[in-house]
Amino acid sequence: MIRKILFGLILVIGAALALFFTLGPIWIERDLNRRADIELPAVSPEAEALHDRLIIADMHSDTLLWKRNLLNRSGRGHMDLARLQEGNVALQVFSSVTQSPSGQNYDSNSADTDNITWLAIGQLQPVRTWMSLLERSLYHAGKLRRAERESDGALRIVRSRADIDALLADRQRGEPVIGALLSIEGLHNLEGDAANFDRLFDAGYRMAGLTHFFDNELGGSMHGLEKGGLTEFGRAIVRRMEQAGMIVDIAHASPAMVDDILAMATRPVVSSHGGVQAVCDVNRNLTDDQIAAVAATDGVIGIGYWDGALCSFEPADVVASILHVRDLVGIRHVGLGSDFDGSTTVGFDTSELAVITQLLLDAGLSEGEIAQVMGGNVIRVLRDGLPAR
Fold this sequence. Notes:
By secondary structure, the protein is an alpha/beta fold. The protein is built from 15 helices and eleven strands. Strands 2, 3, 4, 5, 6, 7, 8, 9 and 10 form a nine-stranded parallel sheet that branches. A two-stranded parallel ribbon has the order 1-11.
């Protein structure tokens, strides 16, 4: 009898583990990366033709976090190579997310817990990634390199100004190549050691936000407990980023940290993904003073598509946010920052980006202004900020 009970328990545990390692990651992502059930505006032939002529760049996606092959069309999430091609995206920034606190919220989070540890185990990532934030980012970079190698030239990692120029020249010749740039969502993956900056830079990372949903060794998050400014370690890393040619991103930084970064910045700074408080009044979004301060560095505000950025799922509110930045500081300082696959619910995926082009046309923007918003401004900041080669 005892043997039968033990055997039964072993079978139950085995079945539970099989579900955890196979279907678990799929169920988790389906629950976290959703598409809202809304009706999108029709896209006119004029808008479609314009969209096909644009150089489109998006400053933030978390697709590398999930157990999916970027090269295969997926029935879940918001982005993959096929959908990037259908959306005519020329350059996509892929972020590395390495820690996510339990009960994550916009107001106050401790750094003491981490949901991504279980995700890394459940996705059967290499053991080295289970307990090391640095190794998680190195794994994400390796994942993108493998996609590049296996894409038959359809995907190309961008690390320098020369890479951007080559990408644009090839697309102008009609080659449907898509550029991919690596970013970091919170430099807690340095694990408190400045020497790890070189490992991340050598792995291809060219943009980074200093914090994510909790305070860390570099300073305060807008969602942290203390919400302080830059630490001395944080200041040293910002200087190192500017020297090396890594774009400084203020997304998720506390107001005090934003002020400290902008006060010391000597190169353009971005807010890669988020909204504006004038359209959606939550702490996740930028005040008019912060927008003006980013513009003063000749930087760009990336507008996101999820409800935390918009207080809705409507593409019309993406455009309302874009227009607010334009009216405040000029068309030169606004771009796209979707936060696709960032545990977000959105009204459209990357294959449907032409709805934004349509609504920008409807709002009376010229083709030149639309070209700036949809990618020109982001390309400019990257060319200004990345190493020459």
